[in-house]
Amino acid sequence: MSGTQGGGSSEKKSFDERLSAARRRQGLEAPPPPPGGGPQGNALGVGLRVGVEMVSALVVAVAIGWWLDRWLHTKPFLLALFVLLGGAAGVANVWRLIAPARPPEKERGGRD
Fold first, then answer.
1. Is residue 83 part of a domain?
2. What share of the chain is helix, strand, coil (3-state, %, to 5)?
3. Buried b vs exposed e over 2-16: b needs ≥16 C-beta within 10 Å?
4. For residues 15-19, average pLDDT
5. What is the value of pTM for the model shown?
6. Terminus-to-terminus CA distance in the chain, angstroms?
7. HEC profile of 28-45
8. pLDDT of 86
């Protein structure tokens, strides 16, 4: 009996760690969150991704419109058109990022 009392806390800690690891492997317990992965970190990541999605869509669209205008000598019509298309693409990308995922049609009760 005296052998279990001396190292009881370290044995209990080791047991708890092994138990948690086994539960995670079986899918019974969620893995511990990474450091700095709280709600503020997640919100910052989503905000940065939204900005990058919008800016990248606009930059690509402006580049395509500018190049087509130079090639076809139609300044500024295609540039203006592609700015609108790039803005719409950016909004669509952000919508896909923010909107909740919809289950497949089969799971929603649709027909086979």
1. yes
2. 70, 0, 30
3. eeeeeeeeeeeeeee
4. 88
5. 0.56
6. 65
7. CCCCCCCCCCCHHHHHHH
8. 97
Look up the domain containing 55 and give its range: 47-100
Residue 99 DSSP label: S
| Exposure string over 81-94, b if 16+ CB within 10 A, otherwise e | bbbebbeebbeebb
Q: How many angstroms separate the CA atoms of 83 and 85, rounded?
A: 5
Confidence of residue 23 (pLDDT cuts 50, 70, 90): confident
Identity of the amino acid at 17:
E
Pairwise CA distance, residues 5 & 110, whole Å: 61
Does residue 20 lie within any of the structural domains?
Answer: no
> Side-chain half-sphere of 86: how many Cα atoms within 13 Å?
21
